[in-house]
Amino acid sequence: xxxxxxxxxxxxxxxxxxxxxxxxxxxSLPQVTVRQPVRLLGLVLRSPLWIGGSLALASGFAAQxxxxxxxxxxxxxxxxxxxxVLLVLLSARLLGEETTGRERYALGAILAxxxxxxxxxREGADTVxxxxxYPLVLLVCVPSLATGVWLYNAAERRSRHRHxxxxxxxxxxxxxxxxxxxxxxxxxGVSSHLTGSGLGGAIVGLLRSPxxxxxxxxxxxxLVMSQAALQRCRASLIxxxxxxxxxxxxxxxxxxxxxxxxxxxxxxxxxRLAGIALAVAVLLSMPKHDRAPQEPIGARELTPP
Length: 305
Hints:
13 helices, mainly alpha
């Protein structure tokens, strides 16, 4: 169990460092778009800083495999979301991003909500499931992927409208969060196949499952979508939103798909449900637009007629 906690904390650090490095690399690159994925990949692959960030993220995914082999899904998500604090600190220190008071309160409420989920757990009472019915996994994941891609495209169309207020990235974060939520379930499935005794049998069983193909889809689309979103929006907002959606998605649907039962104790059940409801409410209340840049005082007088 403690190995799982240590792996989750390591994954948090790797994810935070990876996102910040990628964001810093993207600020010095020409504007990228999901409509030109080949150009996007060509630009980022020429940036050593971006490659370092992507390697950190890949290492975080590897650490996540160890987490799902030792911790229940809901417990793992409670630990993963604590990485938001490190992400905000790194964004302020390395990217110069400032969060508003409302956003800081929202992040605090999200952490409180996920803490409630963690408090609803009890050691020895929660089991770590190792399998899920493939039809149920596909029934959960395929509509989620379609919804994430649709929501991202809708945000892209709205962002191209003239005179629209600058977006904070909430819509982008929700869309990418859905994809990463599916990816998280796929990682859980991959980890269950790695528990087999024979390597050859484990690989064959894994290839017969939907998990590697879900990872390929979410990896390809998530890479392109997240880079374009990171370049347009503040990492200190889009990543917490993405993380919250991913954690809630995985905790709720992953628990149901893999058959990890909800608490029987009324107090623990109330804590878990209330935490989920609070996180969703905070997410819906977060500002959808950044403040437009204010014109300097006296600029109109200095502008020639």
